[in-house]
Design goal:
The chain is built from 10 helices and 19 strands. The chain is of the alpha+beta class. The mean pLDDT is 95. Bound molecules: zinc ion (2 copies).
Length: 356
């Protein structure tokens, strides 16, 4: 049995736990996770005894090649009408993704005795724990992205715009085989780096400043995510101190990652250090997030996060210090949680690198 087929088996265990007779899966990322299907219109219904996959005529061929372990059913483009007769008993649906309109259609047409039950987040729960195939895809995406940045930085940053560097980075990733960047790349120099989600500008990168580069590749559907902050010459003491503070807190937080660690406690390891250095208000986002088929998924490492890390979680560890009007520093690694620590996917060095 393939790893993909085993995922639907694990989903059935969750259905039994929630006393559901069937689950309607409509979010395409979840459909892909369960079936391997990469097209843009499909749904599946999973019951303890049945696995049904519905798509419209445009994707019948593709589904026949990609989907195993599910009975393939042709359907109209509006899948809702064809789904109705497939639902039974306590029928779970994904209340976080199903549109109000589709829900109304289902509710109007389902047979007597079928109860639509809000059951969002079940597939997402499975997706938090990566299997071997997923870990291998994320590792490959990370390696590809790291190599792309190395090639870009060899050519230097001086005299080039943030946008030119970002475009080149994305071109390098694509030519190395990436389907896409996993999110719009961030290249942000000087004061612009103080915006955690800065958009690259048509502005030349200055000498003697810090540049935040946050980038990732998507490969076989899986995302990588990494941030490095590099210098373009001599730095002020404030910039150097901010860099060393973020690096220290990032490495200590990495050291706290292991199965069983509370998510909020891992966040606190980095946050406490940054607060003690007087920069608490300059670290306004969470320490990290899960990464997989989506670049932001569960689990989250934040102040408010509930829950503990588990073996097979893939999370980013990315503290930052942002001084408005001056500079920003963020250092981010992507790691797989293990029983006694973390396997780091992102190999780019973290000692302050100067790129002319
Ligand atoms: Zn990132
Ligand atoms: Zn991230």
């Amino acid at each position: 049995m393939t790893e993909v087929q085993a995922r639907a088996d694990r989903l059935v265990e969750l259905l039994v736990e929630r006393e559901l007779d069937s689950l309607l899966v409509t979010d395409l990322v979840n459909v892909r996770y369960l079936t391997g299907f990469t097209g843009t219109n499909a749904a599946c219904v999973v019951t303890p005894g049945q696995r049904l996959f519905l798509t419209d005529f445009r994707y019948v061929e593709q589904a026949a090649q990609q989907v195993t372990g599910f009975e393939l059913l042709p359907a109209g483009r509006e899948l809702a009408a064809d789904l109705v007769p497939r639902l039974a008993g306590r029928a779970g649906f994904d209340d976080a993704h199903l549109s109000v309109r589709t829900h109304a259609k289902l509710a109007e047409k389902v047979e007597e005795g079928v109860d639509l039950v809000a059951a969002g987040g079940l597939v997402e729960r499975l997706r938090q724990v990566k299997d071997e195939a997923e870990l291998a895809a994320i590792a490959a995406a990370s390696q590809l992205a790291t190599a792309a940045l190395e090639r870009v930085l060899e050519r230097g940053l001086g005299g080039r715009t943030e946008r030119a560097v970002a475009l080149e980075l994305e071109a390098e990733m694509r030519s190395a085989g990436a389907e896409d960047p996993s999110f719009p790349s961030i290249v942000a120099a000087g004061a612009h780096g103080a915006l955690p989600h800065a958009v690259p500008r048509d502005v030349e990168i200055a000498r003697d400043t810090l540049v935040v580069i946050d980038w990732g590749a998507r490969l076989d559907g899986y995302c990588s995510d990494c941030t490095r902050t590099v210098a373009t010459g001599r730095l002020s003491d404030a910039a150097r101190e901010a860099y060393e503070l973020v690096r220290d807190s990032q490495e200590r937080a990495l050291g706290a990652v292991r199965a069983g660690a509370e998510c909020r406690a891992v966040d606190a390891v980095a946050r406490d250090l940054i607060e003690a250095a007087g920069h608490g208000e300059h670290f306004g986002h969470g320490l990290g997030h899960g990464v997989g088929l989506e670049v932001h998924e569960e689990p989250r490492l934040t102040k408010q996060a509930d829950g503990e890390l588990a073996v097979g979680n893939v999370v980013s560890v990315e503290p930052g210090v942002y001084l408005p009007g001056e500079l920003g520093v963020r250092i981010e690694d992507l790691v797989a949680v293990t029983a006694d620590g973390a396997d780091v996917f992102t190999s780019f060095p973290k000692a302050l690198l100067t790129v002319g």
